[in-house]
């Protein structure tokens, strides 16, 4: 009798003894993915409760996302230094306690501070959970594990807007944070009992100088835009902070070339596809990453949707992003990255502009189709950009490149939301006598135009020979 062939990397399933660790990693991903979207539909009601202008509530999103982006570079090093179980337990505990603090917030300032601490916990949930699977599972089971924990990342954004809208309409906004408490307590118990405390010995020194420069860059660029949107800073102050962010970024590039222990090494950018992918992500996401924030806001404030209705309207968008995933690989294999990204970037840009005509739909069904189609092109864009960025990196560079991409995604999301604040403030000021819908319409047009211009970055792919079969797996 012939022995059974050894399972390949693509066939092996996760062994039963690792199932609890797998579910813990999925739980952390779900908490982070849910919290990133559940707040968006609740912002107008939270603003009403805390006596704040709803158009200034973008800080609630920025505080969380920017904190996540800032701490991603240090997450893996801390887990290796102090042990995966210890860091993961602290992350869930911090996230859970900060969620309680958010629910107990009595004013806008308290909520922002609580969201920052929630972001500290959220920054470690996905990276450390993924690192736990990498350190604990056999390599043959890693792909199956990653496929499994990607499911909560799809379910969270689908449930988040609807659940957030339902809770603020039929209960109070506090429940969008209180829902994390039982999930967090369950996660802490199983982390203590089932997560191995794997750590690495003789860990190299952490790049503190590089970390400070990166955080300075992200905070300064986002706060510069934010200061402009609030209208409380002078132009000199705004430009000074923005220049500080740019200068910190340039200093980091110089530091990365000289220090071999830099968090993100300069050698990553020797790969032209990685360079194009990162630049393309930056310019595309400045326009498109803020859509989950501005859409529920415009539906409620400009088109008089209820929070629950606005949350339900986001479901076709997320559903479209899920449906198109099975066709993305075939499309890239057939047409190649250059054609897909050139055409699809334009579709995403014009799709964002098309939201300026939301009030022209004859009924809610055509609006749902509109959202579904945008979800399809938006999802294809993100998948194509991300796989282009990472696909040619070596084994040694892949983890470093993936962390940089994750940081860029979250940084652009925070800057994109800040940019929405700037645009809404500007258009509201010059169109003070016009309906609020006018400000939202022009904001969509500008965001779409920025995304269309991102196609100029992907034009550089024409100079690079890309095999058409190099598509995502």
Q: Please summarize the sheet with the most strands.
A: none
Please tally the helical runs, counting DSSP H or I stretches of 4 or more residues: 18
User: What is the strand content?
Assistant: under 5%
Share of helix, binned: over 70%
CATH architecture of the largest domain: Up-down Bundle
At the fourth CATH level, what is the homologous superfamily of the largest domain? MFS general substrate transporter like domains
The domain tally reads 3
Write the layout of secondary structure elements.
Elements: H1 19-38, H2 43-50, H3 58-82, H4 84-104, H5 108-136, H6 139-170, H7 175-178, H8 180-194, H9 208-230, H10 235-258, H11 272-288, H12 291-301, H13 307-323, H14 325-354, H15 364-390, H16 395-430, H17 436-453, H18 455-458
Helix pairs in contact: 1-5, 1-6, 1-8, 3-4, 3-5, 3-9, 3-16, 4-5, 4-8, 6-13, 9-10, 9-16, 11-15, 11-16, 11-17, 12-13, 13-15, 14-15, 14-17, 16-17
Keywords: Cell membrane, Membrane, Transmembrane, Transmembrane helix, Transport
Pfam family, one: MFS_1
Transmembrane segments: 60-79, 86-106, 112-133, 142-160, 172-194, 206-225, 231-253, 274-295, 307-324, 336-358, 364-384, 404-427, 439-458
């Amino acid at each position: 009798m012939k022995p059974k062939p050894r399972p390949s990397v693509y066939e092996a399933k996760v062994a039963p003894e690792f199932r609890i660790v797998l579910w813990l990693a999925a739980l952390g991903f779900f908490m982070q993915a849910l919290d990133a979207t559940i707040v968006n539909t609740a912002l107008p009601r939270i603003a009403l409760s805390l006596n704040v202008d709803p158009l200034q509530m973008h800080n609630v999103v920025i505080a969380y996302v920017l904190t996540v982006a800032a701490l991603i570079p240090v997450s893996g090093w801390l887990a290796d230094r102090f042990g995966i179980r210890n860091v993961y337990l602290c992350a869930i505990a911090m996230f859970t306690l900060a969620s309680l603090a958010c629910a107990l917030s009595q004013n806008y300032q308290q909520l922002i501070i609580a969201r920052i601490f929630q972001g500290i916990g959220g920054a470690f949930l996905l990276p450390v959970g993924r690192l736990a699977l990498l350190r604990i599972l056999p390599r043959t089971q890693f792909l199956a594990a990653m496929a499994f924990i990607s499911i909560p990342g799809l379910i969270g954004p689908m449930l988040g807007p609807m659940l957030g809208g339902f809770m603020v309409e039929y209960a109070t906004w506090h429940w969008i944070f209180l829902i994390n408490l039982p999930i967090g307590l369950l996660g802490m118990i199983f982390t203590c009992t089932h997560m191995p405390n794997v750590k690495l010995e003789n860990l190299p020194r952490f790049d503190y100088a590089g970390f400070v420069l990166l955080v300075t860059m992200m905070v300064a660029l986002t706060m510069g835009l934010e200061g402009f949107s609030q209208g409380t800073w002078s132009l000199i102050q705004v430009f000074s902070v923005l220049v500080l962010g740019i200068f910190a970024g340039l200093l980091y590039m110089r530091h990365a070339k000289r220090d071999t222990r830099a968090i993100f090494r300069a050698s990553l950018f020797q790969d032209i596809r990685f360079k194009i992918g990162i630049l393309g992500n930056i310019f595309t996401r400045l326009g498109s990453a803020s859509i989950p924030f501005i859409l529920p806001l415009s539906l409620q404030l400009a088109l008089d949707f209820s929070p629950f209705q606005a949350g339900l309207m986001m479901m076709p968008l997320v559903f479209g992003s899920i449906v198109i995933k099975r066709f993305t690989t075939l499309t890239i294999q057939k047409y190649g990255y250059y054609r897909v990204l050139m055409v699809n970037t334009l579709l995403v840009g014009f799709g964002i502009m098309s939201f300026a005509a939301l009030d022209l739909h004859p009924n809610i069904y055509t609006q749902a189709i509109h959202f579904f189609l945008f979800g399809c092109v938006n999802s294809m864009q993100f998948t194509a950009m991300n796989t282009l960025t990472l696909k040619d990196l070596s084994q040694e560079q892949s983890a470093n490149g993936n962390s940089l991409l994750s940081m860029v995604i979250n940084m652009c999301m925070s800057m994109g939301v800040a940019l929405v604040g700037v645009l809404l403030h500007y258009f509201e000021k010059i169109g003070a006598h016009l309906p609020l819908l006018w400000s939202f319409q022009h904001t969509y047009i500008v965001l779409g135009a920025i995304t269309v211009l991102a196609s100029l970055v992907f034009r550089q792919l024409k100079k690079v020979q890309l095999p058409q079969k190099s598509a995502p797996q």
